[in-house]
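All the exercises in this workshop are built on plain-text protein records. Sequence and backbone structure share a record, each on its own labelled line. The question running through the whole workshop is how a given chain folds. The record below serves as our worked example for the rest of this section.
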Amino acid sequence: MLGWGCFYLFDLLESIHFFLTKRVNIDEETVPIVFMFLGSCVLRPFCRRLLRQSPSWIAFESKSAAAAMLTSIPAGCAACFILQFLHPVVPWHAVVATVMWSFFILFMWCSLYFSIKQWQQSSKEKERLLSAESEVREARLLALRYQLNPHFLFNSLNAVSTLILDGNAPAATRMLAQIGDLLRTSLDSEVTAEVTLSQELAFTEGYLAIEQTRLGERLRINMAVPLETRDALVPSMLLQPLIENAVRYGVAPLIGGGSIVIKSALHADRLRIVIWNSGRRDKSGQKKNGIGLGNTAQRMKTLYGTDFEFSLRWPEAGGCEVVLELPLRRALNLQEASPCVR
């Protein structure tokens, strides 16, 4: 209705010169358009039926052209019949011109109708596919995220068992309490694909407290995380499995223990995180099956596609480091609260 109203106003504005010179009366423009509108009402159910059949563009255009011609003949003749009463002299060629003009407008209306409906269907299909892809992506991220909890719990309980066998019951008791607190925090918090770096560090510090109960002064931690990086979004449980590997393979095997350094920095629109430990390169250890590195790589690929860096290095100065580089995405609000991997 709105489209026909706009078309009618445009037609009146186009013919205003003829109205002023009395060469054309307004009803000569109005009556044909009224019958064209009625013709479009007749064609609408036909076009809908055609769309349900999902025809090709050529098939739709050919069928709609035939339907527009069949509709324009009675519409044009009816318009001229009405005008005959208003203006007794209506030449025969005016009837032909009105019919052809009606055919052209109704055919264009059918084409426009088809284009709009196809665009709407395409948009809905895209939205449906995007929604489905988002749900699959979220499910995969959560599955990978949940995979880490039993892995962490198994290793932690293994450490408690070791303390008990060593006769260090107070440390084992304290470690069990810390494990309970950490798991409670993990279960009580909302499970999301991404969290702020600040939240991730808080969880990692809870894990490191458990490891320091086990290793004591043999485990030394140094963090250099500037405030401007703390509201950047990172994958949930990004650091803990990498720190766990750093402790297990880079610090625990050494008699004198070792150090772990966690650093972050901004480079243009990128967040760079480096986790270094003082462990030695162990080529045999690289072949062991582990969940930390593979799980983290899969989650980053799911979240960022190929727009990330995740590498394991052994600097010439010694030690082992994991380098993470992610697209910089910030949370709306700041919520404060590896190591030698396999």
Remarks:
- Residues 284-289, 333-342 have pLDDT under 50 and may be disordered.
- The chain has nine helices and seven strands.
